[in-house]
Specification:
By secondary structure, this protein is α+β, with helices and mostly antiparallel strands. The chain folds into 2 domains: 8-152, 2-Layer Sandwich (60s Ribosomal Protein L30, Chain: A); 168-296, Alpha-Beta Complex (Phosphoribosyl-aminoimidazole Synthetase, Chain A, domain 2), CATH 3.90.650.10. The protein is 29% helix and 22% strand. The chain has 9 helices and 9 strands. The protein has helices at residues 16-28, 72-88, 109-126, 182-185, 190-197, 212-215, 237-246, 250-256, 273-283; strands at 53-61, 92-103, 129-137, 142-152, 168-172, 202-207, 225-228, 263-267, 289-296. It has a 5-stranded antiparallel beta sheet with strand order 6-8-5-9-7. Strands 1-4-2-3 form a 4-stranded mixed beta sheet. Helix 7 packs across helix 8. The two termini are 29 Å apart.
Length: 318
């Protein structure tokens, strides 16, 4: 669905800012609390939290994160879900969010309504209150920027740092081919992230948003490099289909495409990995975890493995 209206009467310019904000409140429904805990004041009032608090922010921008082929409700859900994935990566649970819009006056009111209703449905599903935001005019631009608040679900939050040389590298799910639809159809791994944060053998974790080949460097400890076993990488069917279109190996897409929104994490080298696998299967029988290699000393890679070398995922501003 195209986000821009052909007639002014169908666009947000026919409403103006004040009426648009009232419409947004209605579109969000029950996930938008009444003032002062939601829309209506200069700031929303949040309840005190006894645990450590977390905050993250991510946008969706027309032409970059979505196009006309993505339903507007799915765009709204993606905006929230990609932020939820950041909390999942640290083993946290979400609490509240604010959304800032920068929109061209020609944006269709119906498109924006479906966008907010899609975001509201995702917020309801994951227990997030949409407590405020802002609307600004952006000529020839359409973007939404969400800031998400969360809290630690247990005694610790998992960081990107913490892995040691010799530790094992694991991922959830399958990787690659996100452009064929996964980039907006994914499910953030919130329950899985909280579960992993409660396991002492898990040393570090992050979500895979820019591609494993790029993101994995952030988990790599000093004095080591990721040694990947190519046959072990869980390549998605979409990556194989995409490879037939691009002519590149499916493994390349699994490592480099980005927007997988799976979790990559390190497991202590002396951990009982069989016990970990059994416990995971009991908790999440429909989602696999896969060991794809380990952090090895540079120049001493295990037989059959390879370093990421020149492979890279998505990098902004390049």
């Amino acid at each position: 669905m195209k986000p821009f209206a052909g007639r002014k009467s169908d666009s947000v310019s026919a409403l103006g800012e004040t009426r648009l904000i009232e419409a947004i409140r209605g579109w969000l429904g029950e996930v938008s609390p009444p003032s002062p805990f939601g829309i209506g004041d200069d700031c929303a009032v949040l309840a005190p939290c006894p645990r450590r608090q977390l905050v993250t922010t991510d946008p969706v921008i027309y032409g970059r994160h979505f196009d006309d082929s993505v339903p507007p409700a799915a765009v709204g859900a993606k905006l929230l879900k990609r932020n939820l994935s950041d909390l999942a990566a640290m083993g946290a649970r979400p609490t509240a969010a604010v959304v800032a819009l920068a929109i061209d006056p020609r944006v269709a009111t119906r498109w924006l309504e479906l966008f907010y209703r899609g975001m509201a449905a995702a917020a309801h599903r994951h227990g997030v209150a949409i407590v405020g935001g802002d609307v600004a005019q952006g000529d020839s631009f359409l973007g939404a920027f969400l800031t998400l608040f969360g809290e630690a679900a247990g005694s610790r939050v998992l960081l990107r740092t913490g892995a040691r040389p010799g530790d094992w590298i694991y991922v959830t799910g399958k990787l690659g081919g996100s452009l064929l639809g996964h980039h907006w159809r994914f499910a953030p791994r919130l329950a899985e992230g909280r579960w992993l944060a409660g396991r002492p053998e898990i040393r570090s974790m992050m979500d895979i948003s820019d591609g494993l080949a790029k993101d994995l460097h952030a988990l790599t400890p000093p004095g080591a490099c990721p040694a990947i076993e190519p046959a072990a990488v869980p390549v998605s069917p979409a990556a194989r289909a995409f490879a037939r279109h691009t002519g590149r190996p499916a493994l390349h897409h699994a490592l480099c495409d980005g927007e997988d929104y799976e979790l990559v994490f390190s497991v202590a080298r002396r951990a009982d990995r069989a016990a970990l696998a059994r416990a995971w299967h009991r908790a999440f029988p429909r989602l696999a975890i896969t060991c794809i290699g380990r952090f090895a000393p540079p120049g001493r890679l295990p037989p059959g493995s390879f370093a990421l070398g020149s492979l890279h995922g998505y990098e902004h501003l390049r």
